[in-house]
Specification:
Layout lengths: L1 H19 L3 E4 L5 E4 L11 E4 L21 H7 L5 E5 L4 E3 L6 E7 L8 E6 L2 E6 L3 E4 L5 E10 L5 E4 L3 E5 L11
Length: 181
């Protein structure tokens, strides 16, 4: 980048020096016109010579230099999608019957995930998985009440959106509640 600025600066200095020099227009005996910054070497009586008047050089106004690389935090926040994430399954306050060993968590979003964004699945505040998939299977879920949440995070782990917590109740057979005991 600095090299590019140095080359542009040197070019600007040199072009100013060229503009300050004289330009000569020469017409030879066959009528061919040539332009040069040096007067013709062989001036014979049949060649015409005059100092050419050139229009001013076109100038482009300077443009602000854009920084390429990491966008500022303000720019990154302005570019961040406004995600809305929701847990579709399990439904709030649902019960998992005794025969069911696994629990499927399904999340929905209001828009597609950006390439560097992912979903993070939590149960009881413990991170289960970080993935781009909208479904996650919890295997061998333990008995009791559990709180499920899903978050959208960016590549730096910054939370962009989080779902409302969903409580699910898991029931398991008990020796105490057996009929006929």
């Amino acid at each position: 980048m600095r090299y590019l600025l140095l080359v542009i600066g040197l070019f600007a200095l040199c072009s100013g020096a060229v503009n300050a020099q004289s330009i000569y227009k020469t017409v030879d005996e066959q009528g061919r016109v040539s332009y040069s910054d040096k007067p013709p070497a062989n001036r014979n009586a049949q060649s015409e010579e005059e100092q050419a008047e050139l229009p001013p050089v076109n100038a482009i106004p300077e443009q602000p230099i854009e920084r390429r690389g990491e966008p500022s935090r303000r720019d990154r926040d302005a570019q961040t999608p406004d995600y809305q994430v929701r847990v579709l399954n399990p439904i709030p306050e649902s019960s998992v019957p005794p025969g069911q060993r696994d629990l499927s968590i399904v999340a929905t979003l209001n828009q597609s995930l950006e390439p560097e964004h992912e979903l993070v699945y939590y149960m009881d505040g413990e991170r289960l998985a970080q993935t781009r998939k909208r479904q996650f299977l919890v295997q061998q879920i333990y008995r009791g009440s559990h709180i499920i949440t899903v978050q959208v995070v960016d590549g730096d782990g910054r939370v962009l959106a989080r779902s409302e917590p969903v409580t699910v109740h898991v029931h398991r057979p008990s020796v105490i509640n057996r009929p006929g005991s």
